[in-house]
Amino acid sequence: EVQLLEAGGGLVHPGGSLRLSCAASGFTFTSYGMSWVRQAPGKGLEWVSTISGGGYTYYADSVKGRFTFSRDNSKTTLYLQMDSLGAEDTAVYFCAKAFGNSYGYWDYWGLGTLVTVSS
Amino acid sequence: QSALTQPASVSGSPGQSITISCTGTSSDVGGYNYVSWYQQHPGKAPKLMIYDVSNRPSGVSNRFSGSKSGNTASLTISGLQAEDEAHYYCNSYTTSTTWVFGGGTKLTVL
């Protein structure tokens, strides 16, 4: 059974940093791209970043230069390092597994972890 | 990376059909057949309903169908059921090697 478990969310001051993690299990981790998608309270979904099985990364313009997506294949864990956080980054952050060979479709999602940026 | 345009809400009665539109540009929806649709119930994670414009993952009801014409993709749900009441989001690949969601549509089953 595929499981994705996010952790690391919490309250952070504007300008601060936070590192999210996503522990994956139940599938061949290295064979799939993975992504982060966020959802601000009461708002829609926003794609944040994608990482290929080999570690190549893609970022939304809104986070490029501030967020770093990485993966540890030995621990089957993903990391999202978030720096220079602002109020606009407040959201639930979901990690999601790519569907098949694509990077842009996601068939399994975690429950999400809430990041709140506030003074 | 502007969000794709969806109607804020649609509604229908049980048994009826509804269609949700998703309008982008030639740099996203119109340029690629990489459009997907997600269903999200309150407090839950999204669920993939349609990929590659019109394909259904295994386990998704054939009451859900997708199509595309020019820069606009559409999701049609036939034989509406109470359990279909949810938010629906479209998503497309873009020329910038990024992905963009629509703003979301709340479906109400009357």
Walk me through this protein's architecture.
The complex is a heterodimer of chains A (119) and B (110). Chain A is an all-beta fold and 119 residues long. Chain A contains no helices and eleven strands. In chain A, strands 2, 4, 5, 6, 9, 10 and 11 form a seven-stranded mixed beta sheet that branches. In chain A, strands 1-3-8-7 form a four-stranded antiparallel beta sheet, with no helix packed on it. By secondary structure, chain B is mainly β. In chain B, strands 1, 3, 4, 7, 8 and 9 form a six-stranded mixed beta sheet that branches. In chain B, strands 2-6-5 form a three-stranded antiparallel beta sheet, with no helix packed on it. Chain B contains no helices and nine strands. Classes of the chains: A mainly beta (119), B mainly beta (110). At the A-B interface, β5 and β10 of A face β3, β7 and β8 of B.
Supply the helix-strand structural class of chain B. mainly beta
The backbone outline of chain B, from C-alpha atoms, is globular
Cα-to-Cα separation, first versus last residue of chain A: 40 Å
- Shape label of chain A: globular
Instruction: Report the sheet with the most strands of chain B, covering strand number, pairing sense and barrel closure.
Output: 6 strands, mixed
Largest interface: A-B, 22 and 24 residues
Q: How many whole angstroms does the radius of gyration of chain B measure?
A: 13 Å
Rounded mean pLDDT score of chain B: 96
Give the uncertain stretches of chain B in residue-range form: none
The overall pLDDT average of chain A reads: 96
Secondary structure tally: strands of chain A: 11
